[in-house]
Amino acid sequence: MYTKTFFCLILMCTFFLLPGFVSAEDFGPEEWQQYRMKSDKNAVFDNGSDPLESQVYETADEVRATPVVVGDRLFVGNHNSGDLFAFDIASGEEIWRNQAPNWIHSEMIYQDGTIFVGYGNRYFQDNGIRGTGESGVLALDAGNGDILWKYVTEGEVMPTPVYYDGAVYAATGDRHLYKLEPDSGELLHKAEIGSTVSMSAPNITDDQLFVGGSSPSPYTFSAYYLTSDEFAWQTEFPEVIAGLDDVPPAVADDLVVTTAIEGTQEEPEHKMYAMDTETGELAWEASFGVGQFVKNNKSGAPIIYEDMIYVGSPITKTFYAFDLDTGEKQWEFENEVMKAPPVAQDGVVYFSNAEGFVYALDAESGEALGEKQLQGVLAPAGPIIVNNTMFIGSQDSNVYAVPIEEFGEDVLQHASKHTGINQTMVYTIGALLLIVLIIGLVWLKRRRQRG
Prior knowledge:
By secondary structure, the protein is mainly beta. The chain has helices spanning about 1-15, 410-450; strands at about 45, 55-60, 70, 75, 85-90, 95-100, 110, 115-120, 135-140, 145-155, 160-165, 165-170, 175-180, 185-190, 205, 210-215, 220-225, 230-235, 240, 250, 255-265, 270-275, 280-290, 305, 310-315, 320-325, 330-335, 345, 350, 355-360, 370-375, 385, 390-395, 400-405. The protein starts with a helix and ends with a helix.
């Protein structure tokens, strides 16, 4: 009996490893629990569904939040107006619309049929708390858009909340981290960060939450234990003058990566830091160079892909690739002001800029492979890729869906070559499993004959 079970498991694994095996129904993932879905912030999902055709999702105002795709729906909110939308992913039809009390910079994260979204603005109160008017977190029914509950905070919730193990966490402009019960919105715990969090969406990796903060000085980066509701460590950056509180950090291989601005507004130096996730000690730091100060979203957001960091600098107007382990620069690509996190798939990295362009580069060499011109300022909402379809929000009030094939033949050939290498490995593993299965069946047959 155990022998038969063993061979059945091998057979099942072989089928699952063979390329082209798909058992998916919905277009997007089943959940979206934090900013850009994953802790490395490389928001890519593929279940084998066909790419969409080009599509435009029309909203009411500027889109500065990354669109979220779950199942067959796209969720996104508006900057100034606070409108909240759900669209049919294939047709672009608006399914429902609702209204938040203030700006929406937060993604509309999804868990078990519920949308959670933060709201608030960037303006400061007289007491130094960031966020005027009403600020807080909304929970909405993902099916019809009805508001299930609202939790009001003293400061803005521009960073995307996170869902983890039966709780919703929100970092705020009132220098606190809130832990809320997802069904009722009841406050479960409130921890004092001690730093204002602007747009540094918390990153949850394993049992830790990572977030960057600003005032009061010095700028401080924090790690928080979710199992015990206490801070694991807080690392101060006394030389930083901006940006640490704006950047959603990326985490991989026990390193948490973020960026910030040092120097002065007249001569800003853009830098990147990698910290040990357990201790907060600085593993390495790197400089992008000195450039020109920009308004809002002053420091680029990184992603991690195949042991490399990819990040654009609005200060130096250059896109970079760095080795994750050593912090050594691998290549750079000069361009325009860019603020959004990029996305990478099949050996190609894509980034957007404030001029309305998305560029496709060879992830290994930085060679330009293709580009796509859209409309409006593509910042700070970065692109995501779901089933070879790129989704990106624009300040022209639209979200665009663009099939990867529209970036041109060079991109397709490069991606196909990269995918082919991966498929060869999968085919090899599948073939080896089949050989093991055949040998095992022959052995089992001979054993029975002797018996």
